[in-house]
Amino acid sequence: MTKVRFAKALGTLPLLFAAAYVPAFLTVALLKLRPFEAVPVIIVISSAVAILLIKVVSGGAGGFAQFGFRFCHYRYIAAAIVFGVPIAWALTILVNHLSSGPPPPEVSFRPWMTFLYFVVGAAIQEEIIFRGLLQTTLARQFPATLSFFGTSLSYAAIIVALLFGLIHLKVNPTTAAAAFVLGLLSGELRHRSGSLLPAILVHAVFNAFAAIL
Q1: In whole angstroms, how large is the CA radius of gyration of the chain?
Q2: Across the strands, what pairs with 153?
Q3: Residue 25, burial from CB neighbour count under 10 angstroms (0-12, 13-18, 19+)
């Protein structure tokens, strides 16, 4: 029964992912928006759809709180900074050194757009979708953890981090690997704290380094 529930929950991930993003990208395509117009539209629409989906799948007791819409202990905020800053710094330098493709899209944006859209907006949007909607949906059906060296990692966090890395393959493999590390760190913070706040913070730190360095 556990395997069946896990397979069912795993199968819903691509459906929920598509449901969250397709309306936003269809809107951009239909309106033929330019990049600086498309980014905020994608952020707003996909976030709104994800929140609607959370409302639909949340079911009974707990509501939005069980999907991470809650405060957490300050130690998890501190952990997001303590772990996020050095890891983000190191990975950004590594990605910049190994990547040979075109510069990231935020380079062509004005500084205030970069901060608002990528550091703040994208961090909130992607964490709502990946760690809020997708990871929680999977964890509710399969809450198991992987234990090693005296610690543990949530299987749901690992799987969603893999998905997060895969969608960044369109940039390059190095960026995808960095995205997987970000997804794993933010996913585990989400799992341990019960809140999206540490995940959003560490994501914003990663995006800030990517935009600055």
Answers
A1: 17
A2: 146
A3: middle
